[in-house]
Design goal:
The chain is an alpha/beta fold and 163 residues long. The protein contains six helices and five strands. Helix 1 packs parallel to helix 6 (146-161). It has one domain (7-161): Rossmann fold (3-Layer(aba) Sandwich), CATH 3.40.50.
Length: 163
């Protein structure tokens, strides 16, 4: 049997990750780049608004329908949705309305979801309880073995989806 290339959609803050100087939050960019590079290295096709929009450099102002249609199309294409939900240094969540909508789409479409988040219990009941709707794997950003757990999770999904 020929191995199917799986597609992962990676979501996370863009609008609220732009710093006052116009740059994208460097710590978050490093995390997103790590996830993108790990998924590519494991043979996944990667879809991401972060890549498409060059981490907020592409001006999509007023292009509501185009962005929504693009992202919903990507959600329908993907096998796995990875939602990155980081905290600010002060412990507040970096909000991402788009990622919240994508989590809703992913759960309604019964997609496998990996939520990359802080281990602090700062997330809503609807995020924390998504495993009642679909398969969800939580990975904690602040875990000492985050990279190893990300690799293991993506590898296991790749194997199970190809069986």
């Amino acid at each position: 049997m020929e191995k199917k290339e799986l597609t992962v959609l990676i979501g996370g803050p863009i609008q609220y990750a732009i710093e006052s100087d116009g740059s994208f939050n460097l710590k978050l960019r490093y995390l997103i780049d790590t996830v993108i590079n790990k998924a590519k290295a494991l043979g996944y096709n990667v879809l991401s608004a972060h890549i498409y929009e060059s981490f907020g450099e592409l001006d999509v102002s007023g292009k509501y329908s185009e962005v929504c249609s693009r992202d919903f199309g990507w959600m329908n294409q993907c096998d796995v949705f990875i939602a990155i939900l980081p905290l600010k240094p002060n412990g507040e969540i970096i909000h991402s309305n788009g990622t919240a909508v994508e989590l809703g789409w992913a759960s309604a479409l019964k997609k496998t979801i990996i939520i990359i988040r802080d281990s602090a219990p700062k997330y809503s009941h609807l995020v924390a309880g998504l495993n009642a709707i679909t398969k969800v794997k939580d990975l904690y950003i602040n875990s000492n073995d985050f990279d190893e757990l990300l690799t293991k999770s993506l590898t296991e999904l790749n194997i199970s989806k190809n069986e």
